[in-house]
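Rotation project, supervised by the postdoc (A.L.). Task for the rotation student: set up a whole-complex structure prediction and record inputs and outputs verbatim in this book. Inputs entered:
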Amino acid sequence: MDIAWYIVLSALLFCTGAAGILIRRSPMVILLCLELMLNAANLALVAFSRMVGNQQGQVFALVVMVIAACEVVVGLGLIVAIFRRRLPLDVDDLRELRG
Amino acid sequence: MSVTAWCWLVLLFPLLGSILVALGFRALPARTAGAIGTLAIGLSFACGVAALLNLLGEGTEARHHASSLWEYASVAGLQIKLGIFADPLSVFMVLVVTGVSTLIHLYSFGYMRSDQGYHRFFSYLNFFVFSMLLLVLAGNFVLLIVGWAFVGFASYALISFWYRRTTATRAGMKAFVINVVGDIGLVLAAFLIFRELGSFEYGTVFAQAPHVFHANQWSVTAICLLLLLGAFAKSAQLPLHTWLPDAMEGPTPVSSLIHAATMVTAGVYLIARTHALFVLAPTAADIAAFLGLATLLVAATIALVMTDLKRAIAYSTMSQIGYMVVGVSIGAYGAGLFHLMTHAFFKALLFMAAGSIIAAMANEQNIDRMSGFGKAMRFTSITMLCGALALAAFPLTSGFFSKDEILAYAGARGGMYIVFTVLGYFGAFLTAIYTFRLIFRVLPGKPCPEAQELIDTGHLHHAHPFNPATGEEEDADVGFPGAEHHIAERSASMRVAMAVLAFLALFAGFVQVPGVDNAIANFLDPVFADSPLAAIHTSTSWSWIGLAIGGAISLAGIGVAYWLYVASPEAPGALERRFGALHTFLSNKWYFDEAIDLLVVRPVLAIGRFANRVFERFVVDGLVTGTEEAVRGAGGVVRALQNGLVRSYALILIAGFAGLALYFLTAQS
Amino acid sequence: MEVTIFFIAAIGALAGAVGVVASRNPFYSVLALIAHLFSLAVLFLLLTAAFVAAAQVVVYAGAVMVLYVFVVAYVGGGGESAWDSIPGQRFLGMLLASVVFVELSAAILSSALRALDTHGPDVSSGFGNPAAIGRLLLEKFLLPFEATSILLLLAAVGAVVLAARKRDQLPSGGDGSGDPATSLPSEDGGLATRERDAGAPSERFAREERPPAGASGTTPIRRGASEEGAPVARSVSRPATSSGGI
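Outputs recorded:
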C-alpha cells in the first residue's frame, strides 16, 4: 500500500479522537480518546519511518508510547483522586479554574 | 558698592520682610510685624538713595548698568537671565516706589492696628513692593513679565484682603481678570520682540531696534500695540479701566499705595522704558496718546458726579494717569515721569486723608452724608487740603509744575498735538472742579452727626460693622474690617506719614521749575537721549505762559466749585435736574461696565455653557464613555471565553487549528 | 494480500476508534480501544516495524489498558446525560473534527512529497528488528532513552502521590450506602463549599465513618457491598452529577 493510505488513516483516527474529546463528558473516555490521538500519531510516525527507510521514526514511536503511558498513569491517578473526593466525574462540572 | 549691588539690596529687603512677617505671624506681636514691614521698605529706600548717589557720581553717559545673578535658561539661542538694569529711569522709579511705600507702611502701622489680619497685610504689602521693584528694576522682558504678574497677584490679594466680604472678592477677581488680559498682550509682545530681535535683554533690544525696524513697520506697531494692551490694563486706561473703581474695596492704604502711587503707574513706566520701540511706531504712540486723552476726560467727567469718596479719588487717579500716558507717548518723558512722582505724593496723601475721614464715619463712604470735618478733624482737613491743592494744580504746588509741563510740551510739538494741550487744559479745569467739590462737600459746613460726635465727645462714631457698598452687616472677625477704626488725629504714625506727604505735595514741584532748575528731566535725560522727541524743548517763556494759563484755569475751577457747593448750595440740584440724562449717563460711568458685560462677559459665558452642555456632554463624554463601553464590551466577550469548561477550550483549539490549516492550504506559496 | 490485511486492520482500527467515542459504557470503550490497539499492531507489522508492534501489544494493550480496566472497575462510570451542557458543543465538535480531517487529507493527498505514493524504499530484512531498534536506543538515542526512563519514574511517583489515600478518606465510595441522605447534604453546597473548606470533607467523612463503624463486624455485608459497590457508587455519583449539574 502506498504510504499515503497509512497517513490518511492516521489522520482519520486522529480526528476521531479529537471528536471524542470534544463530545464526551466523562474524563475516563476523554483520556481514552487522547490515547486514540496518540496512537494515530504513532501510526503516522511509523509510516513515515518506512517511507524514509530510517528507523528513527520507530524509536520516536516507542518514546511516544512511553510518554502516553506516563500520561495515562497520571491521568488515571487524577481520576481516582477525584472519585475519592466524591466529586462528580464530569468535565463540565469541574470548572473551578475559570477566568 | 556698585549701583547694581545697591539695587539687589533694594530688591532683597522687601522680600525678606514679606517672608519674615508671613512665617512669623503667630510668633510676632502685631507692632513688631508692622515695624519689620516698614523697616524693610525703609532700608530699601535707603539703598535706593545710595544707588542714586552712586549713579550721580558717574558720568552721564555711563549711567546704565546691567547685572545678573544667574541664567535661567540658555538654550537654542534663548538666553534668559535673572538680571536687573540700573539706569536713571529705574532708580527714579525705585525711589518713588520705596519712598511712598515707606510712608504708606508707616500710615498702615496705625490705620490697620485693630485689623485681625494685620500680619497678613504687611506681608502682602511688602510682597507687593518687592514685585513692583522687580518690575522696575528688571533688565529683560522675562523678568519684567514676572514682576508684572507678581504685582497683579499682590493687587488681587490686597483688594480681596477682607475676603469674607463678597464685594471685595468679586472686585479682586475683576481686577485680576482684566489684568490677565493685559498680561496676554505683554507676553505676546515679548514673544514678538524675541522673534524680531532675538533677545529679551533691554540693552540688546533697544540698541538693535532702530536697525531692524523701519518706521511704522507692522511688526513694531504690533509689538507696541500689544505693549499698550498690557500697559492700559495695569494703568486702568480706557477700555480696560473698569477694575479700578471696584478696587477701592481694598483697605485705604492699599488704595493709596497700589492704586494711586505705584502699580497703576507701571503702565506709564512700561511705555517710558520701551520708548525706543514707540519712537519707531508713531501710530501706536499716537493711539496711546489719544486713548490717554480720552481716559483723562471720561474719568474727569465721571468724577464730577461720584458720591463715593474713594471712588471719586480713584477716577481722579485714572484721569491723572491719562495725563502721564499722554506725556510719555508724545515724547514728554521727563514731564510725564515728573507728574508720576508728584501724583504719587498728592494722591497717596488724598487717600490717606480719605481713610481718616471714612474711619471717623465708621466706614461710611458716601459724601452726601459727610460735612463739617474741617472743624472736627483739623490735621486731616489741612493735609487733605494740601493734597487737593496739588491735584488741582494750584499755583506753585507740585501738581502745578508737573501737569502743565506736559501740556506745554504738547503745544511745543505742534501740529495735531495742540489738541492735547487744549483738551488737557479742559481736563485740568474739570479736575479742579471735582477735587474741590470733594473738599467743599466734606470739610466746611455744619458738622454731620459723626463729626459732631467727634467734636462733642471726642469719641469716634461706632456703628455695627457693615459693607459700605451694599450696607450688609458684618462681624469683627478676621476677613472683615471690624468695628474699630483709627484716625490720623489719634495715631502718630499716620500723622508723620501724612505730614511728610503734605510737605512733598506742596513743595516737591520746586525741583523742576522751568528756567530755574530741571533736576528731574536732566537726571532722566540720558535714558531718553536716543529718542528724537526728547530733543523738542519748550522755551522758558512759553513754559511760563503755559503755567500761567494752567494756574488761571485751576483758580477758575476752584471758584466754580466754591460757587456750586458753598455759595449757592441749591445749584447742583438744579443742574442735576436740568441735565438729568447726562447726569445718569455719568453716574453709570458711561455704561462701560454694562458694555463689557454685553460684549465680552455674556458671550464668554454662553460659550462656556455651550461647551458644557453640548461639547462636554456629547463629544468628550461620548468619546470617553464610548471608549469605556467598547473596552468593557470587548472585555466581556473575552471573559465569556474563559468559562472554565475544558471542552470549550478544546473546541476553540481545534477550531483554531482548522482555521490555520485552511490558511496554509489555501495560501499561495 | 497486503492490501487485504491493510483494509481489515484499518477497518478494525476505525471500528475500535468509533467504539471508544460512541460507547455509553466506559468499560466498552476500554475494550474497543484494546481492539483498536491490536489492529494498529497489525498495521505496524505491515510497515515492517516488528518491535514497535510487539511493544504496542505487550506494553500498550497489555499494561496500560489493564491499568485502564482496573480504574474503570474502581470508578465505575455511568452514562452521561443526553443533553448538551454547552450548547452546540456536540454539533460543532463533530463538524470541526470532520473539517480538520478534510484539511489534513487535502494536505496529504496534494502534497508534493512524491515518496508518499510509493511503498517506501527497499529495506534490509533486519529493518524494525529488536536488534536494530535496540542498537539505535543504546547508541544514537541513549540520552532520550535514559530521559524517558526517568520520566516514567516521575510519573509513577506522581501517580502514587496523587491517588494516595488521605488519613480519613473512605476506602471506597459506597460506605455511606445505607444512608445516602447523610452523604447528600455534603454535596448540596456543590463544589464551592467543598473547595472552600478543605478540612471539612475530612470532618464530614469522619462523621460518616462512625455510623458504618458500628457495622464493621459485618464483613460479608461489606463484601456484598463491594459487589454492589459499583452500582452503589453509581447511585452515589449519580446524585452527585445531578446536584452538581447545571
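Student's summary: The radius of gyration of chain A is 17 Å.
Supervisor addendum: Chain A touches chain B at residues 18, 21-22, 25, 91-92, 94-99 (CB under 8 Å).
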